[in-house]
Amino acid sequence: MGLQIDPAFVQAAEHRPKSTISDAGSIPLIDLSPLLHHHIPSDPSDPSDPAIANEISNLIAQIGEACRDWGFFQVVNHGVEVELLEKVEAVTKEFFALPAEEKRKVKRGEVNPMGYYDAEHTKNVRDWKEVFDFSVTEWETKLLRLENQWPENLPEMRAICEEYYKGVEKLGYKLLELIALSLNLSAKRLSHFYENSNSYVRLNHYGPCQSPDLVLGVGRHKDCGGLTILFQDEVGGLDIKRKTDGEWVRVKPIHNSFIINLGDIIQVWSNDKYESVEHRVSVNSKKDRYSIPFFFNPSSSTNVKPLEELVSEDNQPKYHEYNWGDFYKARKDSNFQKLEKENVQIYHFKRV
Ligand code: OGA
Ligand code: NI
């Protein structure tokens, strides 16, 4: 036996990453190249709009199926420049390679959740990772102050990160429109919740671990926001709980692609037609892994509830309304420390 691992990281036996099905029957792969040639129509039922006729309607159907059956899909030809991906990956590696005291200078606090952090807990077990969170806007409510913190010793980091944010945000809006159309909503139905959005980018570094069978890079969880757009490097480690049989499936890295997953808010908006799916990150004993999720979230003033168009006499709303800003604050607090109880979840708002 080598050194004992800190028990704060050790997962309960039933949550340890034993079985994953590598690459088998993995998530749908969707080619977004039709978006490079066509605009997204505002009204799918308008027969005079030629964009809807062919490639775009096919794309909407693929997105709808992936959202319904998987809650996850991978996209290629997404319009974000490969050079930009390379730059943000390189600066991510440089940031985490900074001396610990430099990273500590940009550490997040209890009121400001932006910056560096190496002690996040998911479901009250410590994650084997370090992260850096940033956004392009800064705002303040009674309880939270989002204030970006950039390391002095890496002056180019801010501009690269901000450019990256804007690139993936553009993709985010396109995906929101396609998802809205797949739910038979008007294209911009979801987008208007995103003015003054509470979105942010996270840089993740998962270091090698001597006991990859006992810990997780991120414990099993569902993303609580709107939509997540994830860039991962070639190492691999993201596992998804497949809806059809509950098996953990490893997502195979595809160069220059993004992994998209639906968060809890889309589940509530769609009144459970689409679901946010559980996932986790396994680590390994040899390689560092880097990933970069963009959490595309509505404005913190948004009150989330099933959309009127998607409920009816026979399909009553399944959730009570909740405020996204309050939910986000409660989550941030619970991730900051180990608690004895479960943190806030959307099923707490479920109507019985
Ligand atoms: C997350 C997450 C996956 C990954 O940060 O919510 O699920 O591959 N990350 O890093
Ligand atoms: Ni996640």
The residue-averaged pLDDT reads 91
Biggest β-sheet, characterized?
8 strands, mixed
Oligomer: single chain
Kindly state the number of beta strands: 19
Which structural class do you get from the secondary structure elements?
alpha+beta
Bound molecules: N-oxalylglycine, nickel (II) ion
- Unreliably modeled segments: none
The ordered string of helix (H) and strand (E) elements is EEHHEHHEEEEEEHEEEEEEHEEEEH
Order of strands in the sheet with most strands = 2-3-15-12-17-10-7-4
- Global outline: globular
Distance between the termini: 50 Å
How many individual helices? 7
SS strand fraction? 15-25%
What is the radius of gyration computed over CA atoms, rounded to a whole number of angstroms?
20 Å
Helical residues, percent: 10-25%
Structure in words:
The strands form five sheets. Strands 2-3-15-12-17-10-7-4 form an eight-stranded mixed β-sheet. A five-stranded mixed β-sheet has the order 1-14-13-16-11, with no helix packed on it. A two-stranded antiparallel sheet has the order 5-6. The chain has 352 residues and is an alpha+beta fold. The mean pLDDT is 91. 24% of the residues lie in helices and 20% in strands. It contains seven helices and 19 strands. It has helices at 34-37, 55-69, 82-96, 100-104, 157-182, 264-269, 324-335, and strands at 21-22, 29-31, 72-76, 115-117, 121-122, 125-126, 130-134, 139-140, 145-146, 200-206, 218-221, 227-232, 238-241, 248-250, 258-262, 279-281, 289-296, 303-304, 322-323. The protein is globular, with a radius of gyration of 20 Å. It binds N-oxalylglycine and nickel (II) ion. The site of N-oxalylglycine has 11 residues, from strand 10, strand 12, strand 16 and strand 17.
